[in-house]
Amino acid sequence: MILFISDLHLSFDKPKITRHFVHFLQTKARRAKAVYILGDLFDAWVGDDDFTAPNAQIRRELKRLTDSGVTVYIQRGNRDFLIGERFARGTGVILLDDYAVIDLEGEKTLLTHGDLLCSDDIDYQAFRAKSRTSEWQQNVLSKPLWLRLIAARWYRLRSFWHKQKKSNYVMDVNQTTVENLMRKYQCTRLIHGHTHRPALHEFNLNGKKAQRFVLSDWNNDGGEVLCFEDKK
């Protein structure tokens, strides 16, 4: 089976979610052929040199899972886009680009975190473009770890208050953007997270039935997992 999750937002102050995720890695994930984590595994990632809780534990558990033969793919989200190659080497995971196309049950399927689909949020898209440049990232990663950790907490608070001022429409995906991307990658199925609005949307795309799966975020009660049985 192939499993898809996203938006766990693991952090020191969310120990229950960490426990749920570790249990998932040690049980259901062990029976999977592949696990796809589509962004925001962590609530903030300030660099691959950060081993503060729960990061060190999560690295160990991911390494145990990949060592057991399960392939784990990670797409970086808007909270953990600084995950890099050092993390990948240490855990055995495979990092995916912002858009990835896979064959899922014989159907081309587009994977993405989901923030790029929210094209009506102009301010966020501008920040996103800036923060993905090598210059911006090198500047951030050159700062001492303690300073990056403080800055990350401040950015999370600022992000929370900014969201209160935005409409649900602005923070949701733009359907035209969705359809244009699916046409570009020639896919009739899309799987993403980010919006925290789990659902299955069905619509017509170039005369064909198309699907958009939205993954759920995780909370203290656990989280939903999208599962596709491997028919091969």
Protein architecture, described:
With 232 residues, the chain is an alpha/beta fold. The chain has a single domain, classed as Purple Acid Phosphatase, chain A, domain 2. Helix content is 36%, strand content 21%. It has 8 helices and 10 strands. The chain has a 5-stranded mixed beta sheet, covered by helices on one side. It has a 5-stranded mixed beta sheet with strand order 5-6-7-9-8, covered by helices on one side. Helix 2 links the parallel strand 2 and strand 3. Helix 1 packs parallel to helix 2. The longest helix is centred in the middle third of the chain and has 20 residues.
Any key phrases for this structure?
232 residues, alpha/beta, Purple Acid Phosphatase, chain A, domain 2, 5-stranded mixed sheet, 10 strands, 36% helix, 21% strand
CATH architecture label:
4-Layer Sandwich
Widest sheet: strand order?
4-3-2-1-10
Number of helices: 8
* First-last Cα distance: 10 Å
* Number of beta-strand segments: 10
**Series of H and E elements:** EHEHEHEEEHHHHHEEEE
Write the topology of this structure.
Layout: E1 2-5, H1 15-26, E2 34-38, H2 55-67, E3 71-75, H3 85-91, E4 94-96, E5 100-104, E6 107-111, H4 122-131, H5 134-141, H6 145-164, H7 168-171, H8 175-184, E7 189-192, E8 199-205, E9 208-214, E10 226-228
Parallel strand pairs: 1-2, 2-3, 3-4, 6-7, 7-9
Antiparallel strand pairs: 1-10, 5-6, 8-9
Helix pairs in contact: 1-2
Describe, in short, the structure shown.
This protein has helices at 15-26, 55-67, 85-91, 122-131, 134-141, 145-164, 168-171, 175-184; strands at residues 2-5, 34-38, 71-75, 94-96, 100-104, 107-111, 189-192, 199-205, 208-214, 226-228. It has 232 residues and is α/β, with parallel strands linked by helices.
